[in-house]
Specification:
Blueprint: H1 2-23, H2 34-46, H3 49-61, H4 75-90, H5 101-109, E1 118-122, H6 130-133, E2 141-145, H7 153-164, E3 170-176, H8 180-190, H9 200-204, H10 208-217, H11 227-245, H12 247-255, E4 259-265, E5 272-274, H13 277-288
Parallel strand pairs: 1-2, 1-3, 3-4
Antiparallel strand pairs: 4-5
Helix pairs in contact: 10-11, 11-13
Amino acid sequence: MGRIIRLSVTVCCLFAFVAFPVACGGDKKEEVPVEKAKQVSKAKIEHTPEAKQVSNAKTENAPEAKHVSKAKPSPDKAVAMLKAGNTRFIEGISNHPHINLGRLIQSGKESQGDHAYATVITCSDSRVPVELIFDAGVMDIFVVRVAGNVCDVDEIGSIEYGLAHVNTPVLVVLGHTQCGAVTAVTHAIHGTGHALERNIPPLVDNIAPAVRRAISKYPELLGDSIIPNAIEENVWQGIEDLFMNSPATRNLVKSGSVKVVGAIYDVGTGKIEWLPDAKVDYIFKTVEANPARAMKAMASEGH
């Protein structure tokens, strides 16, 4: 009798174990592994609004990705862009690029090193509006301006920054017609000059060798008739002074990553005369053979 009772209880228990899942709505479900269950749970949590806020906060506070510089045009391509821009300017069909609000917003967020395609050193003369004469805009040209477009310590330092840090592939040493600085130095050498403020003579003393060379080369030109030739010689003088005192620039030229060109802007027509590349090459080779040239490219102390 006892055995029959125990057997009955066992059967009832087995029936309850089998029947209960069916009575509650279906077959027995597949058991979910622990790791998979954790992943599902985590996914559900990550899609909640609170989790998204935390995720956004982490993203905003995370270190920025390393900046990757954009590709620049080749030196020859950059020169072609400048020439094309000047042609549009003198023909009255300028595009006026990169001068809208969008470009200003962009310049507040991005590096000029990703955009500027030329460094230009030119005179401070108000008749030489650099971006306009090249039909360029914001972040297109790294400009260095000084009376007489001379290349002395400050100007050369600025040029080095434009070439080595803004990564412009071309440097234009741009003189212009009717240059007051060259005219003043010419008059001084001719003995017809006038008194100058104390800081002007040391500013333009780099021009004197150019004027004397022009007088020597063209003895038939008297008085102010020598000035146009002196203006061109001053461009060559600036390039020579740059090469003599900037090993960094010479290294960039030797590597082929930078091209230096000379040019003269006509303030009366807007046209730029591009001087021969062969003369730049000759000056470069002459400087490279000069033992007096500066040899140390980098400053002694880091900045």
